[in-house]
Amino acid sequence: MVTGGAGFIGANFVRMALQKTAARIVVVDKLTYAGHRENLDGLWDHSRLDFVQADIADAAEMARVFNAFGPRWLLNFAAESHVDRSIDDPYPFIHTNVTGTLVLLDAARRFLKQGDSERHKCFRFLHVSTDEVYGTLGSTGLFSEDTPYAPNSPYAASKASADHLVRAFYHTYGLPTLITNCSNNYGPYQFPEKLIPLMVLNALEGKSLPIYGDGQHIRDWLFVEDHCEGLLLVLQEGTPGEKYNFGGRSERSNLGVVETICQILEDIMPSGSNSSLSQRGVRRYADLKMFVTDRPGHDFRYGIDPTKVQSQLGWNPRHSFESGLRHTIEWFVANRKWCESVTANSYQRERLGLEFVPSK
Q1: Is 132 in the active site?
Q2: 2-187+223-248+302-318 is a CATH 3.40.50.720 domain
Q3: Which one of the listed residues 80, 134, 155, 259 is annotated catalytic?
Q4: Percent of the chain at pLDDT above 70?
């Protein structure tokens, strides 16, 4: 059972799991602005894929899904996930990320209570979380599984709350749970509100490349396929009650990421041959960079130490940041129709997250 399986990371996981396992998969997704049927195109006739459109905070419907499909494993990807949107309106983040997680946990607890000891022994509830729950780092240090939580945005606070609920259900009810916290994912099917797809699409269309503040905020980047392989490994071999951090050991400043995107685009689709740039009198993609008002409460740096999952489970990312980024850019260049389809009538790459910025 893959909740949020029509979203970015969830859809990539579903594709990988259908290739690498013999499991039957039921995707549960509400199909909000960032969850789209198009993310699963090519899979709808697959004999091992079922789809249920539902809200994970709907207790009656989640109980029905558990009883209808009897999942052995559950992966919870379903989440509101964009910090800027959480600044504009935190309530949907509490509904999905907190209440929705609680409903899933309770539905799983009741489902296991109805079964025998073998069902309980085999079951796993894997909650996919974020490094943002840990807050912000200075110029040194890394987040580990023991780092205290210190969320600084409504989004991060909602994910931290969900993590605590998952931990509590393990210790209180014995539910076989696992928690993973990952660094910034990137790759195919990522909704264009996030940094990398937003910059790629804007650059291709000759639009400005808005960089928050001075562009020196640092993130650790992880290619989505590497993350999904790690999640499958945690499901198969992870210890219930444990949490595992996934990072790409690829820290980059936001400005550095944008500059690398511009460099790769010059190679894939040279600016001189892009009419969208010439019509605006722009010579190079890099000339589109523009510094804008910073995000409120913008965390300075994230960095993850993945030593535990590497040493205990043998996981290692297969892609460097540069190779993963090139693959990602090539995908977005080749899938412009997908981009148009998933953003139609919902998001036109406008700036979010400034509603509560105090005037100076």
Answers
A1: yes
A2: yes
A3: 155
A4: 96
